[in-house]
Batch of 2 targets.
Target 1
Amino acid sequence: MTAQALAGALADERRRVVFAAIVLGARDVPAVVARTGLPARDAATAVRRLTDAGVLADDDAGLRVDSERLREFARAAAPSPAADPRQTILRTFLRDGALTRLPAQRGRRRVLLEHITERTFEPGLRYPERAVDDALRPWCAGGEADHVTLRRYLIDDLLLTREHGVYWRTGP
């Protein structure tokens, strides 16, 4: 089961109420009905769907949360420790090709700024300030950062150089 399937299993309010009742000790459908006040048919349907999804188990002790199965889901959904840290940073701070915010930590911010520089500015080309602003605005659309702050960071980190209103790429 994927994290998305697990979230889907618990997306319905009745299934969440039934899940909570079982977590709190209800061991069969009549006990779930008594604790939740749901109609018996709704409770039974929710129990069946949660059992089919692997969230609940029904064994000799009655209904229970399948803790081992949930641990398996969590392990399967956990990111691999071998994941590229650069990609993790980019996934964290970029959504749909735009910044969500600038990282406070300098190392993470540097990774993000290098990414933006590589995709926005060609080495050897010179850009007037207006062109730099126009190129950086889409990176800031809908996020907390603005293009002026982004431009300042690019200069401060020596990824762009500025002289007399003209900019060029100097970083990697």
Target 2
Amino acid sequence: MQFIDRSIELMEKKRATALLATDKAKFIALSEIIIEKIKTGELKPGDQIPSENELIKTFKISNTTARKTLLAIESKGWARRIKGKGTYVLNRTEDHHLLRTLGSIYATRRGFHDSLIAEGFTPKNIVLEKTVLQDGISSEINGRHFIIDGPVLKLHQLRYADELLIKDEVKYISLTLCPKINKIPTEVSYFKVYENNYHLKINEVQQTLGVKILEPNTTNFELSKPTPVFVLDSAVICTGDKVVEIEQSYYHGDKYKFAVIASPEYDYRPANPVTS
């Protein structure tokens, strides 16, 4: 995992070693180090905290100390353990803004639904349209023209967090590259499906972000006044410059902040396929 690969760097081993040598119980000292990383923003909402095994390996502590460390962080309300997946930083921002990182393969791979769960929200999806377009679709992003030849699956759904509509999402997916993907549940990470079910090697993700003012009663967002929304256009490109997905979506401007990663590195991580 991307976060795990950075864990030693994030925790500044020298400082951690010094704190662990104090009179404090080791699990308290280590939990305070990790919580400080959360407070300073080095660990962001939805980021995964090192597992027990990773803490044991990095800091040469017992499994009891590692387990108590994670329990201490969770009991103080900074993280949440998801059974079978790990411990994730909760969203404790004052206004519960959702931070999304453009250009992050890690964030894209995890998917919208799982990201909300990791941050402590309850996600809900409402599918408005799920149809097959025979003529294909095209989009211009970052000065490049991206085309998916038909047939294409058009998936239009509303994404909610704790009953608040935060994203109006439209995806177009190649049925040539991903036959029968319309049988896959819509809340999954399609990026993982491309990799694991269809064994596609994703070479790049092109994204642009704009801003638009929406008037009340003109969109699916329930707006009482003119409200800014982020407009995301993206394309997922696999080997041979084949476009597997084009997305055109609105994000609720009052609930989102975006960050950018420059020159992201991609690593292919096959896992178990998703089934319907």
